[in-house]
Amino acid sequence: MRKDRNRFFKDIKLQKEPIRESVSTEDTILARNPILQQFINNFSNHSDLSVTEFPHLTVKIYYFSYLINKDHYEQFLSNIRTITLDELPPFLNHSEFKRLSNFDSIEEAILSGSGILFTEKRAYELPFKEGSGRSIAPSETETVILGAHDSFVESIDVNLSLIRKRVLSSQLKTIKLHVGNKAKRTVYLLYIEGEASEKDIEEIKKRILSIKNDAIVDTNMLVQFIDEHPNSPFPQFYTTERPDVIAYKLFDGKVAGLMDNSPFAFCTPVSFFDFMESMDDFGQRWIVSTFIKVTRYIAILVTLLFTALYVAVTTYHYEMIPQALLPTLLVSRSKVPFPPVIEALFLEFLLELLREAGARLPTKVGQTIGIVGGIVIGQAAVQAGITSNILIIVVAASAIASFVVPNYLLSTSIRIVRFGFIIISGFWGNLGIIFGMGILIIHLSSLTNLNSPYLLPISPMFPKFFKYSLIRGSFKKKAERG
Amino acid sequence: MQMKERLSPFQASILMYLTQSGVTLFSLPRFVAEAFGTNGWIGLIIVYFIVNINLVLIWLVYKVSKGKSMLEIIDIFPKWMTLPFNLIIAGVWMLLGVMIMVKFCMILKVLFYNNVSLIYLLTMVYILTYLLLKKDLYQIAKSTVVLFYFTIWTVFLLAFHLPEFSFIRLTPFIFKGDTDMLTGGISIYTALLGYELSILYIHMIEKKQLKSIIAGNTITSIIYLGVTFVSFGFFSFDQLLKEMYPVVTLLGYISFPVLERVENFTFTIFGLKVLMTTVMYLWGTKELVQYQFKRIKPNFLVIGILIIGFTVSFIPKVIKDVDYWITYISYAATVIAFLLPILLLLTILSSKILKWKAANE
Question: Which domain holds residue B155?
Fold first, then answer.
């Protein structure tokens, strides 16, 4: 009776969905295939793995239904249904089916969205890959006014295509690498042969291959595993969402890297001055761009030192304030019950909170934060006598200046370093600021990215590169120079 | 860490300039006025050429030895023979480096930070020195170039004094007044000291060795000359003789619309230049001691030198004591600056003639 019932259900199942069942090692003639056995062992507890059987052809097809492109899959099914056992070998010899000879390649193929077809002896990759994902949209972290508006997405293939479209040369070479022990993430290294240094390529390859961590989910994380100075607050690898930046850097002889499922690409070797560049600089006239670039350097100094200088002057060096300005400052400071360093740290910290809250919240709520922050910091804090008017101007100026820095990573680092300067100036005044500058200079000049000095071309000095990194020289002259 | 990279000529020049440019700058116009009298700034040019002769001697050592470093040249002597010489030179250099910094800190304390203990000031200096000294020369040179950019703008502050500059104050007389050419001349010469350390790194410069070291000295001399010249036209001659630190007074004259009396800021920035002088002298000390005692780990050696330096810093109590120390040590350093290349040249020549082989393996 029981046997009959089982049989009955089996028939029902076959009728209802005749070619689909979950993975199990039971009853199949294909179990003779050792690769399939290994495959089934490794994927034993995957209830989301689907399988399609064609008993008359003695083949099984495994795939993840949500990773594949359904149309491709249906197309393939309609093709394979029509063929006979004799026609199978020539059918599979078709070039679109790639033969896979070991488990690693099968694992990679099925996890990246292909189907795997097992015959009695062999395994083939079926190209069912889903091409769609987030559509290409303008970058939110690196906006430009002049220049291309597309940016990388989470699909590494789309990202590669965005770069290929810009570097139309067979000299653009790619190296495919895998990161991690278990969850193998794909990383592509790109470089232009003849432009990039072989030594750099080998070095970066070596470093990426040495990563044993499996939990790397983004390019910005990956580069922290391969940089030389992990304890520095400064970013060392340049990461960007913009394919035009990567194309430009590739022509500049740099090595770029893409990681699957990350909309960021990294490039190396870079210096501090690469972080100060925006693609807008290339669209503007060179005189305008140079002016803007110089403004950015001033902005960095303002971010770093303005609040610290306020603290130093109002704590220790009142003599530095001109007589005309002194009454205003004194009136403004007189109601504040805290020393300047506490006052400044309080306001700066509040500003950082606002910034962080604004970055995490949805846009609509973010506006509320802006209004609350504006009123609280702008008006109420002064009226309540917690801070002085002048300090608000100082903090606001340094906050605005910090947003002038085009690279988000660098901008954040500089804002953090600024806290150091404020604290040290609260202790030692101007002396502290100079001491802090000394430490900062020594630190920055000792940094390297892929063994290339961080402050290139200032230190070590290469004046001929000044034109294209410190400022933006004329293109015409560059063309003449070749 | 092995020395792999070589210094570019520009780096070497900047290194040279920042080693030379030290604490004597602040009193240099007075020294010049005391030594050479009216229009004494012309005397600086003479001193500049004497230093250049010394630099040529250093370059000759490099050239005749075919690119060997000083330590490779003296390697033909057994270690016990070089030990006293090296220790004396290292001692002189260390004391000079330390005392220059002590003097700067004392001036800083007297003028701007009366309530700050000297220990704080010196601790800051020694922290920065340690950060630089624990690296090799190439790294030091890299930091030096950035520090150069960070401090060089102070030279342009001289523009603030030009409206007050008057040629009448220069007087039509040359080298008149109570002059003391010899002693005064030597004290001015010591203001340019620091160049002698190039004997330790000239072989690391990748090309144009002579040009780059002379360029370094030229930068220093032009800046010294500019400051002295402006001082001679800014102060009257008698005032110049009475000013303890004319350059500090010059700095005090500067004011900006939003900030005035910035001298405590600019003067402190000068501290970074003085820091480089100290660092380079201590680096020289470290190289020589390391040569004698190869087994000591470089980091321990640096810490050892800094501890000794820190302790010595507290022996002189007032600026006058420090001046006294600096005078004698810089005489010794001057003698070393001249004699060292000459002795090395003699060593190279005699080793070539007698075909000596290295005593140490």
Answer: 9-349
pLDDT digits (tens, 9 = 90+) for B199-208: 999 999 988 8
Judge if ipTM > 0.90: yes
| Structural domain total, chain B | 1
Q: CB contact, 8 Å: B8 with chain A?
A: yes
pLDDT bin (cut points 50, 70, 90) of residue A310 is very high
Range of the domain at A38: 2-126
Looking at the partner chain, which of B260, B271, B272 has a beta carbon nearest the beta carbon of A320?
A: B260
pTM strictly above 0.95: no
On whether both A217 and A296 belong to a single domain, the answer is: no
* B321-358 residue pLDDT tens: 999 999 999 999 999 999 999 999 999 998 888 877 66
CATH code for position B87: 1.20.1740.10
In a domain, B356, yes or no: no
List of chain B residues whose C-beta atoms are within 8 Å of the C-beta of residue A228: none
| Coil, strand or helix at A194 | coil
List chain B residues with CB under 8 Å of A460.
5, 8, 11, 141-142, 145
Q: Which residues of B touch A446 (CB under 8 A)?
A: 135, 139, 142-143
Q: Give me the residue from A320, A446, A461 closest to B11, CB to CB.
A: A461
